[in-house]
Amino acid sequence: MASTPFRYQSPDEDSARWLGFSFRDGDIVISTRSKTGTTWVQMICALLIFQAPHPPAPLAQLSPWLDHLIAPREQVYAQLAAQKHRRFIKTHTPLDGIPLDPHATYLVTARHPLDMAVSLYHHSDNIDRARLRQMTGQPEPSEPSPPRTPLRDWLLTWIADDDDPREHLDSLPGVMWHLSDAWARRREPNILLVHYDNLAADLEGQMRWLAGQLGIAVPEHAWPALVRAATFENMSASADTLVPTAGIFKNNAAFFRRGTSGAGREILSDDEITAYHARAAQLAPHDMLTWLHSPRQEPCT
Asked: In 91-109, which positions are buried (b, 16+ CB within 10 angstroms) versus exposed (e)?
């Protein structure tokens, strides 16, 4: 008997919304940490499924974020039930927090944690917190927020903090928890790991591999346009239709800030990078960290 999924909760999300969801054969669940390529992989899935460089609707409509609290659960369920295309659903919940249906495929994205953290820092500045509180029914804070810690100081604290991974999923322990759980399941036939750096290094090869894993046949003549549509430049130019939660960002274009790797390592000294690796070694298995920090160009299955 399958174990009951762990319930992950935050002011914005609740993984319990997955309980009772009716899967269909062929469903795709995209399980990611924030700023690890979520929207990129959603876009790739849309391009493979619809086989056109311009998907037929905004990405958030085609690929809803099921456990996000900005829309009632019943509304999201109805939206998904009405879809006629192959469904691809977003979640930031680790695999141990959602039902694992044998008829679905689960894509878990990974990115070097230091790059993810730098992107997360800038991403946080772009969120309209008042609007988000309004959309999720959160109360207004009783006191103003303190001044933002400078990026380098924040990053060093992020590396050193010993947060409960299940309470703080975007912390370093939380990132390692999410990925280690997926890594332990990587031999299962419906679990796929996708690395941000491999997408950046060989976008077409990774898209072709993913199409094969998902059983999607793409005509050869269609590939150039589909790959071009998935580039950072094209996605950034289409920000208004691709940002995941329209209305909560101060600037949609800023959602696609850089799109390259190495930002974290540019900020820290060699000794601080060494301290990061020592901390990471306490949080995740060695073979997973080897792949995470220096991914093979071949997909990991």
From this structure: bbbbbbbbebbeebbbbbb
Q: What is the DSSP string of 13-43?
A: BBGGGGTT----TT-EEEE--TTSSHHHHHH
Q: What is the pLDDT of residues 208-218, one digit of tens each?
A: 999 999 999 99
The rounded distance, in Å, linking the Cα atoms of 95 and 9 is 14
Instruction: Report in angstroms the alpha-carbon separations of 288 from 42, 47, 76, 165.
Output: 24, 29, 34, 17
d(CA 223, CA 209): 12
User: Is 221 annotated as catalytic?
Assistant: no
Q: What pTM was estimated for this model as a whole? A: 0.88
Single-letter amino acid code for the residue at 274 = T
| The dihedral formed by the CA atoms of 240, 38, 196 and 54, expressed in degrees to the nearest 10 | -40
- Cβ count near 28 (within 10 Å): 23
Q: Is 138 exposed, middle or buried (0-12, 13-18, 19+ CB in 10 A)?
A: middle
Q: What is the pLDDT of residues 130-187, one digit of tens each?
A: 666 666 777 777 777 777 889 999 999 999 999 999 999 999 999 999 999 999 999 9
* Structure tokens, 76: 């999201």
In terms of phi and psi (left: phi > 0; alpha: psi -120 to 50; beta: otherwise), the region of 247 is left
Walk me through the domains of the chain, giving residue ranges and CATH numbers: 15-293 (3.40.50.300)
* Active-site hit among 68, 85, 92, 277: 92
Amino acid residing at 122: H
The residue among 87, 55, 60, 28 whose CA lies nearest residue 210 is: 28
Cβ 132 vs Cβ 299: under 8 Å:
no
* DSSP bridge pairs for 65: 90
